[in-house]
Amino acid sequence: MVTMRDVAQRAGVSIATVSFLLNDTKPVTAATRARIEQAMLELGYRRNVVARALASKRTRIIAMAYPALEHKFGMSTAEFFTSAAEAARGQDYHLVLWPVGNDGVELRELLGQGLVDGVVLMEVQLDDPRIDVLRQAATPFALIGRTTNLDGLAHVDIDFDTTVENAVKHLYDLGHRELALISGDLNDPRFHEYGPWVRTEQAYRRVVASYGLPEVVVPCSDTTQAGKAAAERVLADHPETTAILVLNEYAALGVVSGLRRAGHDIPSDYSVLALLMVPETAAMTDPELTMMRTPGPELGQLGTEALLLQLDGNAPPPPQLVPAKLLPGATVAGPRARRPKAGAGRRGERKARS
Fold first, then answer.
1. Distance between terminal CA atoms of the chain?
2. What is the rounded CA–CA span in Å between residue 320 and residue 64?
3. Whole-prediction pTM value?
4. Which residues pair with 292 in a beta bridge?
């Protein structure tokens, strides 16, 4: 069995120096660290994580709390996880995923076991009960997302205002004047205070009003089938629409399918722009979706770094908002004049939610 003494002899340092490194109790120089780690690799030495945690009072493990029962995993979500894990690994931490509910009950139970040094909170609600749980447990944390009251909260998030402004401007500059947003369903109890959906819809209403365009908002849950149904509603209730913005990535796939199933060409008849998506998902449709590319890699890294700074006794960085960026595909073009169907027209109040 390989011991610390063996590692110390191979690296040419004292046993105490090896202990300092393994237990993170005192700093060692980069050159000494490299010699010790090389010796451990050559000898096949395995760190005792439990002993290290007891000695340093830190586990070197952080958790990403994700409400998996309320929010589906998607390719966009995976980017947050992987970039957060890379940022943690770069600072000699391990990242674990905690699929806990939004109510904070499971989170409280897990925090009580002392398994992690800190938490990165995802899928943040405007009034998120998990924050009180973290504060009561005195556990350092950072948010990828925003609550309504942000006093004293380290956070990063998507810049929804800029994202929506750039998306609408792109369509407007191409000549579109009849837009529809297929948004999230805020009547769904899982999402009625879900920050991204609320902020996106608020931004859309503000931006189209600034352009003097009518407001058309169609609620839609986070499934492909719901996207198909939402597309049917736009066709039936707002046939004058020429461009559709879609918030949820699963719904966007359904919108394209629904329009094509109804016999419409994309983008000749309707342009479709996904507001938050990653290239892998966009490539699933034919034609490939034009999208606002979700800044998952940036936010996963920034949110994790904000937590790690606190764990090292430093002040967290200032809040950062990162907009999604336009990534051209093949589902957006200038509007083509369409002959209205007999009897077709606007149905219902344009200013109200559809």
1. 70
2. 19
3. 0.80
4. 326
